[in-house]
Records
---
Amino acid sequence: MATQNKIKQAIVFVHGFLGFSAWRVLGRKIYYFRALPPELHALGLPTYFPTLPRAGVIAERAQALAHYLEDINAEYIDLIAHSMGGLDSRYLIHHLDPQQRIRSLTTIATPHRGSPLAQWILENKLPFSALLRRISRPGLIDLTPNACARFNAEMTDRPDVLYRSYAGYRPLDEIPLAFRPWAQAIQKAEGDNDS
């Protein structure tokens, strides 16, 4: 990596399962992280929004993230990751950061202990669940509680990285109708959640 034009810090936002960086729909650009990309770019902040394999397994998504980070000429990198992106980032920090450029990881709504929703989708007989299984394997399997238990046994925290994790709660009656069955499945297994 060249030292010329090297920046001190880069902030990388990592999308979750079935996510994307940006889509163009009917002439409008839709961002996974909503208004953040244009707002942060307007401020001149060194921010990046990679696109990972949407339904890939954690190792595959982390490898894609590592490849993306190779092109960022920064002394250190702070990762902000949503949902499965947090697991991908943990894998990357543990296995794929030989230069130890990752300085911090902030996860938002990451299922560090797995998601009962993933298990529910894999086991449920409803047609919608069958469709989700069809478009979301093999990555969905990596999100089950059993898979995450195995993952956590291997992915120890690196002492030179600052880890933060944020989760949320939303009352069931405030969750959009389309997501309420999922929120109910999670609530039955684990209690309050943000769906």
---
Amino acid sequence: MAFCATYYTTSIGRVRVRSRDDIQRELVKTRLLSESESADWINNFMERFWKIYEPVLSQTIIASVDQILSIYTPPFLESLSLTTFTLGTKAPRIESVRTFPNTPDDEVLMDWEIAFTPTDLSDILPKLAKNKTNPKIILTIRLGKGFISAPMPIL
């Protein structure tokens, strides 16, 4: 008889735990449909990582765009190149992320709200604001041919 009572008690306990987990999972799905999450943790990471990643990203963009520009340079120009490209020292911000849970198992559907205002100084420390770099893109066109050519930077 003691065995039956123990089995009955653990079975009810298991049912209770599983039911509670199922209910919580459904409540989270309902909340995901109506609310968006803040992304402060990833913004904190982005602010620190941006100082390292932005120069690498800029150089990659310059290299990629230069290849395309060299192919499509008009015949009346000697050369066309992207000489300077920077997105600035302020990182993009992820304002919110919203996940849609009612999708097929092999799909993930999310709605990301992203803001990039590189000249806004309202949330930067004064020390960082003093050393800030604004976004800049300079395209250099070389007019003429050979010895008579002259570079013209376009900001």
---
Amino acid sequence: MTRRYLGLRLILTGALLPACLAAQQDNAAKLPQGLVAPGAQLVRLPGEYSFTEGPAADKAGNVYFTDIPANRIYKWSLDGTVSPFREDTGGANGLYFDKRGHLIACQGGLGKMASIAPTGALTPIAEEFEGKRFNSPNDLWVDPQGGVYFTDPVYGRRTVVQGGEHVYYVPPDHSSVVRVIDDMVRPNGLIGTPDGKTLYVTDHGAKRTYRYAVCEDGTLKDKTLFCDVGCDGMTRDTRGNLYLAEADIIVFDADGKRLGVIDIPQRPTNVCFGGAQGKTLFVTARTAVYTLQMAIAGQNR
């Protein structure tokens, strides 16, 4: 049976209210008008999973997500069905589609990044940095030119192979790997703007999210604090609002003002937009995946 649940609450903020106090203001109200579709309900997709992550939409709006312990990638199709897409994924975590329709995957279990072609062929695109494998690639974003940014944190009992937890960039031709952030405690979720000029990266370990300007060669500059929240995954809508997967889904506008929270029954791990019109919010949350109809589309189409 499909479970339905909806909890939306508004966290009021203002110029005179410090962010730390605003985070404690829970008024059990709605998100701002025009963000969630009228009458929308949170819907749990069918299926039981061990630990879901990495939702990503293809060009048509089908959504793919991972079950990390099961070593599997699933596909939600536009007809509402969920089916296995790939087995033996190398411990795949975060996913994202490039413009060619290739599914780029963080193979956390193998310490690699890989590209999965529409034919199903898998090609490594980043296997090591300075002669060592990566810690455990976690999340990624593909820029307009096809370059790949990915985070490489360490969770659980994994070994810190790279001497720290950093962020890397692979250029469009996949010919090299550049370390672009080396001063975070534990980087995790990230997403850029459609023009490729700005990148948002969360430091989950420091409980902060930052905004960077992207240089022509893919390196980053002008690090600026975006908000005092560190999250798991994140996504962005066409208005520039950011959705951060933390205890629930926390929504900020483009200036870093906290707009509200979407309550999720289980703690979220990641979030993306999908569906035929790109207006369905998909939330991976531990043993489940939830959807919510929105009034606006996501940018990741």
